[in-house]
Amino acid sequence: MAGTDRKQAGLSGGPPVILHQPQLGENIGLAARAMLNCGLTEMRLVAPRDGWPNEKARAAASGANEVIDNAVVFATLPEAIADLTHVFATTARPRGMVKPVLTPKAAAVALRTLLSEGRKAGLLFGPERMGLTNDEIPLADTIVAVPLNPAFSSLNLAQAVLLVGYEWLQAADATPDFRHWGGGDEPAPKAELMNFLERFEAELDDCGFLRNLEQRPTMVQNLRNLFQRARPTSQELRTMHGAVRNLVDKRKS
Ligand code: SAH
Question: What is the pTM of this model?
C-alpha cells in the first residue's frame, strides 16, 4: 500500500486503547488502522456488539493485522481496565464532572510521563451512538476532549482514535516543522550568500542598473530579501555566480 514500508522499523507499544462496546466492525478496523498509524498496538475490546473476531473489522483495518490479531476481548469495562493505574476517558462532552479535562496534546504529555514512571495508563473510547455513560466516566481519572466546533464536536470513533493517537505520537516525534526540500541540501552559509549579493550588486552598479541613488537602497533590500527567501544552497550560488559572470563577459566583449 502506498505510504506503507514494511522494511522500516515500526513503532509499537504505547498505552492500550480500550474501545467500550463498539458497535460497527468497520469502526473497530478503522480504529486499529489509526492506532497502527500512530504506533499504538494494544487494542482492548469491551463486549463488541457483533462479536469477535469480526471480518468487517479486519477488512477495514487495511493491513493493521497486528492490532486486530492481538486485540483482547473483555466482558466488562472494569475487567478491561483492571491492571491500569490511570485511565483517560475520551468524550465529546465533558459533562461537568469534577475531573481534569485535557486536550489530546496535554493528555499525550501526561500519558508519556506516567508511562515513563512505570505506571500503566490507557485510553478509553465510548460506543458510537451514545459515548460513555455518566456511570462509566467516573471509572476514569481524566477526561480527554478534542476541542472542536462546539455546535458539532462529536467525532466518528475511529477519527477520535486517530486524533488522540496522533498527539500521542507527536509528543515524542522529532520531525522538524520545516524541512528544506531537495536532497537534504542545506542552505548556504550566510557568508556565501553575502559574497554573492555583494558581487551581484557591484555588477548591477557597474552596468548602471542601480544608478538612481534614491531608489538604490530599496532595490538592494528587495534583491537581498528575494535571495534570503530563496534559501539558496552553495551549489545554487555557484550557478548564480556563473550566470552573472557570463552576463558580464557578454556585455564587455
Ligand atoms: N454521541 C456520542 C459520541 C460518540 S462518538 C456523544 O455525544 O458523546 C464515539 C466515541 O468517540 C466517544 O465515546 C469518544 O470516545 C470519542 N469522541 C468522539 N468525539 C470526541 C471528541 N470531540 N473528543 C474526544 N473524544 C471524542
Answer: 0.77
